Fold this sequence. Notes:
Layout: H1 2-13, E1 30-33, E2 40-47, E3 52-61, E4 66-67, E5 71-79, E6 82-85, E7 91-93, E8 97-103, E9 108-119, E10 122-135, E11 143-144, H2 154-159, H3 165-176, H4 182-208, H5 210-227, H6 238-272
Antiparallel strand pairs: 1-2, 2-3, 3-4, 3-8, 5-6, 5-7, 5-9, 9-10, 10-11
Helix pairs in contact: 1-6, 4-5, 5-6
Amino acid sequence: MKILFxxxxxxxxxxxxxxxxxxxxxxxxxxxxSEKGTLNIGLSVIPESDFISKLHIGWIKxxxxxxxEHIDYRVTVVKDGENIFGPIPLTHTSPGxxxxxxxxxxPGEHQVIIDMEGILFQPIPLETTVxxxxxxxxxSSYYENTSEGGGCLIATAxxxxxxxxxxxxxxxxxxxxxxxxxxxxxxxxGFNQVYYSFSPFVADFERENAAFKETVKVVLTxxxxxxxxxxxxxxxxxxxxLGYGIGIIxxxxxxxxxxxxxxxxxLRKKLRK
Length: 273
């Protein structure tokens, strides 16, 4: 049972669940350059209650992928040309990342406008960045990520980019298949707490050690291939999700445990002869 549970976890280790608080620069749901390219700005929208969400915003050094400290900024949220939040007064953040609660009272497309006017206590010409987000029914109860890449840690480090086909495929399966079932959603919510306790360290080690990075990539590839089955079959019920999930787990047990065990047994017999 422990092996089954571990195999069930592994595919999701590489793609954190939707709505997780970003811990690293690459974790933000959307990352866009500032108006003149001075910094990149990351944005994630995390639901807090029925109508309140927190805007998680971070300012990122483009060439170093590190958070830029000491930023002077303003934030405005607009829907249908009208301000539903802000603009807030010019505000300073020392750590270079902020959490701002916003009330979304109606669904639809919203623009999050972020103005940057200072870096490291030095004024700069105004640079504006505009993000587009979609809010679902119930205000902030659902956030649709409109960027092409989501925040991934281990997979992004292994395959080199959050835009790699492997990462995008996993994200689509997670969001469009697994998270559409109650059991899948509950599992991801609980597991996400465990994921963030170790994934940043694994991803950092991948970036620092090319051999380890290639090893992780080789180990993950067969599992990712088998997991892609979920994108080619109808999964409309909890029973179908469990059925296909168990089937994929058994397939991976065969690839990662049974086949190597058989191979080792055969080799040992030949060597004894």
